[in-house]
Amino acid sequence: MIILRLAGGLGNQIAQLGAALLLSERVKSKTIIIDDSGLASYKAKHVNQLVNYFDFTRININVVFKRLLITKSRLPRLLPFNLINYPLISDKNFQTALKGANKYLWMDDYFGACLTQKNLNREIEILKSIFIQKNLSKQEGCVIHIRGGDYVEFGGGKVASTTFYKNAISKMQKNYGIKKFYVVTDDKEYSSSILKGVDFSFVGGGMKEDFYLIGQFKFRILSSSSFASWASALGINSKNGAVIIPKEWMPGIERNLHLPNEIDIK
Questions:
Q1: Which of 50, 68, 126, 241 is the most exposed place for a label (fewest CB within 10 A)?
Q2: Structure pTM?
């Protein structure tokens, strides 16, 4: 079996689930135990969101949510030795674990930066097969995801800056004839301040609604957010249109993976 310690918000949780499913496919493990008890320790008090977005009956793996005392020790993060068939798995030795055959593994990390493009592409395929896709219609225009609040204070405002959004909007207008933009955000005041002169409307308003909305649009401008990235990758329009996202997650931390239909801007 595989044990996974769940951490972070929805985007991080999906990344961890994708890594666990990819690993279970490689080593042919049939059970994944997910311990979500650590979510309550966050200041923001995260909760398990996976059960709201994925139907685990669609996959031939037994996914169990269960509290385990052993996960409190965080050993995979403390002792990430790079050895074949080593049971403690973090970002640092995830690629080595994929080469092994150990069916008894304990995972503890965010499992985003350790992926290859091929890994991510396969994770998207697996996750889309169990993703609960709502009966939604595809949307015209371009959606813009803007993350405000503490994200800006931590450096996100420098990566997904006013200049980034202006350039991305210009690209959408010139290359694809986009005239109307729809903004999904957790900070309307901040969004309004960086979109002066742009014809836009606010849409959404709740986590679930926002997540599905992003995936409905053919054209997407995203912040450097795992939430927005997974919403785009799993959405009904994920293989169409164009996606623009900053080159960095945070200042000095570059993304080395690309979303489906991602395009580049200067």
A1: 68
A2: 0.94
